[in-house]
Design goal:
single chain, 965 residues, mainly alpha, 2 strands, N-acetyltransferase B complex non catalytic subunit, NAA25_NatB_aux_su
Length: 965
């Protein structure tokens, strides 16, 4: 591709090529017209029309589009793919993607049929249809290519894969899905049969399955479109069964098969396949252990537990296999771990435990004894706790108490790394026990449970800090491996402080809780200087800094993570979600740093979604990588409707509104236009890198620290709706544009209709939304929903308007008062505790500000509408009732009061955090105060403490440009 357009086809004279690449369109038109008269080649007619569409003449601008629609409608066949490339280029900004199949896709199919023996032409047409994700046209062309070139085996599998993709796509009419699915299945089963029937497996027929990727395609298609019997036949195949494929070194068919069988709850087949694959031996009868992965064992034992009531030998079969493979795995540490873990799993799932797990502080149950054996063998490995956590959760109180407090006997501190890891495991188990419901089983109320857990957290914290300080003194401290061990100890200590804070995003910030969070933050921040690449500490610090309002430090840590584009979609919410509500200055479009920060995530989606499908899909076809052929479209379609993508737009436009800027054309942005009410947004956020050391019944650490519930389909829709509301009411024509009366009426009609649609959409997503939102978001969305109904009601002068407006206005005012009262209570004091609590509530301040702006704009629009009605109708019959006008003015006044209050709180925080302010004077006492704070002395430096104050100061400085009027 040339920068100014597609390459012209071979044979075009140099003068015409030069004019085209120089974008000298009038010359191109003249030369193309001349050439068209000299030779009977429709290509030059197309070239002429496309060049005319590039001229400044408005009448010619749509020439290529008109020609394209005419060609499609009249059945014109453009045999030259180069000509269609020209039309595609010339209409790129005019043709909607959904219209491609009926226009360019249709022309591509006709061109392929007209030149079915031209491999280059037909494959080019196929590629274009795939890149535009026109599967209907692509399927026709791929079938044609396969028929025209039967000796090219790759084309057979292209056709099969595309037919399968069409069958599972919304593009396929529902009445034809089964037909295309059956067609794909029959084609690939025919290829499989050719392989099975071949006598010489080293010289297979060309139209047979030969590669692992083709085998995976077979499994995918039969698993998707076939019956239970079809899939059973496949897994029992003499050649394609998971067992036979495993013997040939191919494990992926087994992975697919066991996942599907578990999903289908076909437990007997799952048991049989796992047993057969785990039993595979070499020529000498020694187990190969090829299938001895933990996932296979886990599913095998789960299947056994489901069938043991009707298949009495299931448990014995598992035990026999474990015994057999234990001996084979002794010399292979990786497999030994898997087999030992399987023994633990079997003891928990397959054997009854009628007696206490521990008696007199000693293991008594078989399952606890097996778990202890595993711990004794694996305790020096960092993964040990993650391996055993879910099993430990199933123990009774005596078993948990034994693991946490009796199994690891007190020992003298050691410089030996494996021994240090054992001590860390002991601390993790003690922390885990403190979070277990079984530990505080007699505590009935929330306060009783907290009283039960507090001393446990404090004890583990003290032990962790003692070990942390000891590690700093050992001779090997300079090595990174030792510092990494110390980092884990710091994490355990920080977890205990976070547990003592006992805060959730919905909790009311208290001085004591904030103190614990700040102490945890500073401990981890100090540790990060020793282990700057520690991802777990970094992710926790990002959340902690955002939680306590020190967003600049969160950004500094986030930058060190260097999140790659491929995982941006799943990790970006950890930093970006609600960022503009706690640090608007960081996302401000008025600064280069803010603009670059928001552009980086926007650019990711622009680049990835530039076309319906990326070029790497074509590469996957050409490489015969059919697993990628199936995965890429799924990834791209999920990316297109990603909650993170919607979040990136919401954060950008909210930042712009906060600073009175309108850089983003919200209503034409694809992140908004591609979302409809029936769009199911993809909820994806990766918490896999966070430590998971708590009991599953208690909130995970990331749930405690984040600003609110994670991105979700419901919140994404509601967030886009409130921005649509704000954008609709905030629009004003340019000052130089004098709006005529008729135009003013049309604008009012547009606003009324738009708000009616927004109100209708709100009714679909707002009910039962509380669990997906912060309390402030719920207030905000509810108020905007009411306002989007209020404005059209006033414009239509509905019957009983006074009562309706009174009820709606009362609800809106109550919401504003509720939000103001909450924040006023936090700001009522004068010490550092109140300042830090208010810093934790910046999200609430911005949401109250946005709520007030929405109320004020709605009130202004209603009053403006009333004034225009008075001008148009002097009789007064079209005017709003006086009491409605008074209620509307009262709403506007309440909104203005809320905005003034918000501004005063930010000014108060700026005053408290300035040099010499209350925060700087009291911060050291705040950090080092209390029993837990004293243990941080000598670990956390004063420099780290004052860096935090500086971060608060910098964050609040960014609020200076926020509009409060």
């Amino acid at each position: 591709m040339h920068s100014s357009g597609p390459r012209l086809k071979n044979g075009v004279d140099l003068q015409l090529q030069t004019a085209f690449y120089d974008q000298n369109w009038s010359t191109v038109v003249r030369l193309a017209e001349k050439r068209a008269k000299m030779v009977n080649d429709p290509y030059y007619e197309v070239l002429k029309v496309c060049a005319e569409s590039q001229l400044d003449d408005p009448a010619a601008k749509y020439g290529a589009m008109t020609a394209l629609l005419t060609y499609a409608k009249d059945g014109t066949v453009i045999k030259d793919a180069d000509g269609i490339d020209l039309l595609e280029w010339a209409t790129r900004d005019l043709l909607e993607e959904q219209d491609f199949p009926k226009t360019l896709g249709l022309l591509r199919v006709r061109a392929a049929k007209a030149s079915s023996k031209d491999k280059s032409q037909t494959t080019r047409c196929l590629e274009s249809c795939l890149l535009h994700w026109d599967l209907v046209s692509a399927q026709q062309i791929s079938a044609l290519i396969d028929k025209s070139f039967p000796q090219e085996r790759a084309f057979l599998f292209w056709n099969i894969a595309i037919t399968h993709l069409l069958a599972i796509s919304p593009q396929c009419p529902s009445e034809k899905k089964q037909l295309y699915g059956m067609l794909a299945q029959k084609q690939i089963e025919r290829a499989a049969q050719a392989t099975e029937q071949a006598e010489d497996k080293k010289a297979l027929p060309s139209r047979s399955i030969q590669t692992e990727e083709e085998i995976l395609l077979l499994y995918e298609i039969v698993g998707t479109h076939g019956t239970t019997a079809d899939f059973a036949k496949l897994v029992d195949s003499a050649f394609f069964s998971p067992v036979e494929q495993l013997k040939q070194g191919r494990k992926e068919p087994l992975v697919y098969a066991i996942k599907k069988l578990q999903k289908d709850e076909n437990w007997q087949s799952l048991f049989d396949i796992c047993q057969a694959c785990l039993s595979v031996s070499d020529d000498k009868g020694v187990p190969t252990l090829q299938a001895s992965d933990w996932d296979v064992w886990r599913r095998f034992i789960t299947a056994a537990s489901r069938i043991q009531d009707c298949y009495a030998q299931a448990t014995a079969a598992v035990q026999d296999l474990l015994l057999k493979l234990s001996k084979a795995a002794d010399s292979k540490p990786m497999y030994k771990r898997n087999v030992m873990l399987a023994r633990v799993s079997a003891s928990f799932q397959l054997l009854e435990s009628e007696h206490p797990d521990a008696i007199d502080s000693s293991p008594s149950s078989l399952r606890l004894r097996e778990l202890v054996k595993y711990i004794n063998n694996q305790a020096s490995y960092p993964s040990c706790f993650d391996d055993i956590r879910l099993f430990a959760e199933q123990l009774d109180p005596s078993g948990i108490d034994y693991l946490a407090h009796h199994h690891f006997l007190s020992q003298e501190p050691s410089d030996d790394l494996p021994e240090l890891r054992r001590q860390i495991l002991a601390l993790k188990l003690q922390y885990f026990a403190a979070t277990c419901p079984q530990t505080c089983v007699t505590a009935g109320t929330t306060s009783e449970r907290r009283s039960c857990r507090e001393p446990l957290f404090k004890k583990v914290y003290q032990a962790s800090m003692a070990l942390h300080k000891y590690i700093s003194t050992i001779s090997s401290y300079a090595s990174q491996s030792t510092k990494d061990v110390q980092s884990e100890v710091a994490l355990v200590a920080a977890f205990c402080l976070i547990g003592l804070a006992n805060q959730l995003p919905s909790s009311l910030p208290t001085t004591e809780a904030t103190q614990y969070l700040v102490q945890a933050l500073l401990l981890l921040q100090q540790q990060l200087s020793s282990s700057p690449k520690h991802s777990q500490i970094s992710l926790l610090l990002v959340q902690l800094h955002l939680r306590v309002g020190s967003a600049p430090e969160a950004l500094a840590v986030w930058d060190t993570l260097a999140v790659k584009r491929t995982i941006m979609d799943s990790l970006a919410p950890l930093f970006y979600d609600r960022l503009s509500t706690v640090a608007p200055g960081m996302t401000s479009p008025l600064t280069d740093a803010g603009w670059q920060l928001m552009t980086s995530i926007k650019t990711h989606y622009q680049t990835s979604l530039k076309m319906r499908m990326p070029r790497r899909l074509i590469d996957a076809f050409q490489d015969g990588s059919y697993s990628s052929v199936l995965a890429v479209p799924r990834y791209i379609e999920n990316l297109r409707v990603s909650c993170t993508r919607a979040m990136s737009l919401v954060e950008s436009v909210r930042s712009e509104r906060l600073f009175g800027v309108t850089d983003t054309d919200f209503f034409s942005d694809s992140r908004f236009t591609e979302v409809r009410d029936d769009t199911s947004m993809n909820e994806i956020i990766d918490y896999g890198s966070f430590p998971s050391w708590s009991h599953s019944a208690t909130p995970a650490i990331y749930e405690r620290l984040r600003l609110g519930p994670p991105p979700s389909n419901r919140r994404a829709h509601l967030s886009l709706l409130v921005e649509a509301f704000q954008q609709t009411l905030a629009y004003t024509p340019p000052s130089f544009y004098k709006v005529p009366v008729a135009g003013s009426v049309a604008d009012q009609g547009y606003v009324i209709e738009s708000l009616g649609q927004i109100a209708n959409s709100f009714s679909k997503f707002l009910p039962d939304a509380a669990s997906s939102l912060t309390e402030s978001e719920l207030h905000y969305f509810q108020v905007v929903s009411l306002l989007s109904s209020l404005v059209p009601l006033c414009a239509d002068r509905a019957s009983g308007l006074h009562e309706l407006v009174g009820q709606l206005a009362s609800a809106v005012t109550a919401s504003l008062d509720s939000q103001r009262d909450y924040l006023a209570a936090l700001a009522s004091g004068t010490g550092i505790g109140h300042a830090t609590s208010l810093l934790q509530s910046l999200h609430r301040v911005v949401l109250l500000r946005d709520t007030a702006v929405a109320v004020r704009n709605a009130a202004q629009w209603i009053l403006g509408f009333h004034e225009k009605q008075k001008e148009r109708d002097r009789s007064g019959h079209s005017n709003l009732p006086k009491d409605v006008v008074a209620q509307t003015k009262a709403l506007g006044a309440a909104a203005d009061d809320a905005l003034k209050q918000c501004r005063s709180w930010i000014m108060r925080l700026a005053q408290d955090t300035k040099s010499g302010g209350v925060v700087e004077r009291e911060i050291k006492r705040f950090v080092y105060g209390g029993e837990e704070g004293r243990l941080l002395q000598g670990v956390v430096t004063d420099g780290a403490v004052f860096d935090l104050v500086g971060s608060w100061r910098k964050s609040l400085a960014g609020w200076q440009g926020v509009h409060w009027q």
